[in-house]
Amino acid sequence: MADHHSKKRFLNLPKYLGGSKAFREFIAQNLHYPKPALEAKAEGSVIVEYDILDSGTVNNPHVLKGLGYGCDEEAIRVVNLLRFEKVKNRGVRVKMTTKTNINFILPKESINYTVSYSSKPEIKNNNPVKHNYTIQL
Fold this sequence. Notes:
Elements: H1 19-30, H2 35-40, E1 44-53, E2 58-65, H3 71-81, E3 95-104, E4 110-115, E5 123-124, E6 127-128, E7 131-136
Antiparallel strand pairs: 1-2, 1-3, 4-7, 5-6
């Protein structure tokens, strides 16, 4: 009797083109901080679970852990924009379920102001000297 070594067949699963770094950059470039969240100074993560079809499209995104203030809806909007590589598996349709953390981190505020002198301003080349300062909070 001859030994039959069966080949293991693995399914091809959809991947994000460019890998995890490109994935994070896409999220960062497309995520808009909702105005209500900015006003409330709300920060945190929204966890979105979704299916990726073998066509590379996102299906059925839903929030597992929300933040509110419009962040949940924004996280769903951005996840819906994602496109993964199409995959083909002979005779098998693939649907992969995954989760993504969408982080909302408040932008660092900066205050710009100008200081002017009312008495004895410095003069260089017949122009008063102006000082601008930026303070990171």
